[in-house]
Amino acid sequence: MWHPQPIDTSGVEVPPEVRRERETLSRQAHDIWAAKRLADGWRYGEARDDVEKTHPNLVAYEDLDDDDKSYDRELIDGTIRLLIKLGFRIERDPTSEQPR
Description:
The N and C termini lie far apart (45 Å). It contains three helices and two strands; from the N terminus they run H-H-E-E-H. Helix content is 42%, strand content 4%. The chain has a domain of 60 residues.
């Protein structure tokens, strides 16, 4: 039987300027997931139904409840902490265009 073994990143500190982008990154993760679902023929439905391909989370990120948003936030937080633990630095290019 498989047992997940994520790398421990509990002691990794995320820089404040990266933490401030958490919602932007979480929204992006949700939008990528939703775009893939929609491309695969899924549509909004009040209940998840794998046969009918309906899912209640096929809504804008802002319309998700906090429990559903927390999934995206935890994914983003874990990814950022892992990148930092692996020795990467995250820096903003001051000349880059910022999303709206």
